[in-house]
Amino acid sequence: MIYITPVAQKHFSKLLVGKKSGTQIRVFVVNPGTVRAECGVCFCPPEEFKPSDMVIKFDLFSVHIDPIYMPFLKDAKIDVIINKLDSQLTIKAPNATKECNNTINEMNHDSLEDRVRHVLQFQINPQLELHGGSVSLVRITEDLLAVIKFYGGCNGCAMASYTIKEGIETTLKNLFPELKGVLDMTQHQHGTHSFY
């Protein structure tokens, strides 16, 4: 389970005051189970709550966590160190770099679709969540194109095409050379939800 110190709880409560009503905190891991693993914290407005989220309730807010990150966040501690000039959020997660049963190496026997979904969930989405967005795999075509769909802050974002080519497509093609490319089937509608 995640431990959030009383100082960090107070810090989060203050930050949430100016946010949209119902906004909570989301904790995630970028590149979990690798030496490059990093834990992150972001705001989580109500429209980004997922039915599958693990929810940890505190006195003044709740923390939402995608269940896939739970093994990596076991025994994690979130604290805020305050000095005279500023404050710094610290996250210690001793299991973030440990391989769990879901790692890509152990998924090699799974279908290409399952492996691509895994990478989107574990490597791409944690980065997109920083901007309030996510992406999912719709299907792999017969021509070996990965058809994806954006949600949240990525829907209508002016940077979506760059994210696809430079981020998602490059990552997927490096990991899965058999893939020919990525197609975006999102009906992009720019609005207040869009990151850019």
UniProtKB/TrEMBL annotation:
Q: Which UniProt keywords apply?
A: 4Fe-4S, Iron, Iron-sulfur, Metal-binding
**Cofactor annotation:** [4Fe-4S] cluster
Pfam families to which the protein is assigned, alphabetical:
Fe-S_biosyn, NifU
- Classification via InterPro entries: ATAP_core_dom, Fe/S_biogenesis_protein_NfuA, FSCA_dom_sf, HesB-like_dom_sf, NIF_FeS_clus_asmbl_NifU_C
Q: Which GO terms describe its molecular function?
A: 4 iron, 4 sulfur cluster binding; iron ion binding
Chain ranges of the NIF system FeS cluster assembly NifU C-terminal domain: 116-182
Limits of the Core domain: 2-101
Q: Which GO terms describe its biological process?
A: iron-sulfur cluster assembly; protein maturation
Q: Give the record's cofactor note, including how many are bound.
A: Binds 1 [4Fe-4S] cluster per subunit. The cluster is presumably bound at the interface of two monomers.
Query: Any idea which positions bind [4Fe-4S] cluster?
Result: 154, 157
- Spell out the family assignment given in the record's similarity comment: Belongs to the NfuA family.
The function of this protein is:
Involved in iron-sulfur cluster biogenesis. Binds a 4Fe-4S cluster, can transfer this cluster to apoproteins, and thereby intervenes in the maturation of Fe/S proteins. Could also act as a scaffold/chaperone for damaged Fe/S proteins.
Record's protein name: Fe/S biogenesis protein NfuA
Q: Give the source lineage, highest ranks first.
A: Bacteria, Pseudomonadati, Pseudomonadota, Gammaproteobacteria, Enterobacterales
